[in-house]
Amino acid sequence: MIQNIMDWMQRLGPRLNDAFLVDDRYKAYLEGLKYTIEIALMAILIGCLIGVVIAIIKVSASGVRGLKWLNVLCDLYITLIRGTPLVLQLLIIYNLIFTARDTNEVVVGAVCFGINSGAYVAEIVRAGIESIDKGQMEAGRSLGFNHIQTMFYIILPQAIKNILPALGNEFIVLIKETSVAGYIAVPDLAKNAQYVGSRTYDVLPPLFIAAAFYLIIVLGLTWLLKRLERRMGQGDRDKKSKKSLRKHFRP
């Protein structure tokens, strides 16, 4: 058993070389990586925008009788998006909305992934807003801010600190989900890996290489998020230490 695994590993090296270096095939992975990052970045922006708007509407409209229909629409959107497969949403949006011949598949993918991510971001942001003490809203209104200003300048900055790990996890999931963009002929990283496999007649090595690219992206994003969390946490600890010092040396 062990000998078979060792033999397979020894044969894998030349196969990886053939799938990555021969005929400059690495350029296909880099080209696909460019499309993957473009789609992911645009989808994150769209998802954050939709998620924040939906979360604010849900929190604000839930206590106002005349605006409950907005809450119902938001719940319907979240239920539909979270209750149906992403691949089906991608195909429906591509075939139902973007029907022109000159449709940019990258834009279609970004819009679809952004709409999908927006439903999850909305629930994350809503939970973060509701975790903030209600007195913060009253304090903002007492300073002369209206409801929206208080939400953006006081509530959301505090909520982001609480939901940053969950948001980071959603962004990581979104990057990996972009691998299904090939269903609408986007030459992303996964699609180009399949293309290389069709040229070498060896499917597994290109898939391993694509998986390594995704892993590097995820590890890099995880590292950045952890640094951001530590930095924000350090700011909170510095504030607490300053308060304790003021109390200790107060005359």
TrEMBL record:
One of its GO terms (molecular function) is transmembrane transporter activity. Keywords: Amino-acid transport, Cell membrane, Membrane, Transmembrane, Transmembrane helix, Transport. One of its GO terms (cellular component) is ATP-binding cassette (ABC) transporter complex. Residues 33-225 form the ABC transmembrane type-1 domain. It comes from the Bacteria. One of its GO terms (biological process) is amino acid transport. The keyword rRNA processing does not apply. It holds the Pfam family BPD_transp_1. The chain crosses the membrane at residues 35-57, 69-97, 207-225. It is a multi-pass membrane protein. It is found in: Cell membrane. Its main location: membrane. Belongs to the binding-protein-dependent transport system permease family. HisMQ subfamily. NCBIfam families: HEQRo_perm_3TM. This is Polar amino acid transport system permease protein. It comes from Anaeromicropila populeti. The lineage of its organism: Bacteria, Bacillati, Bacillota, Clostridia, Lachnospirales.
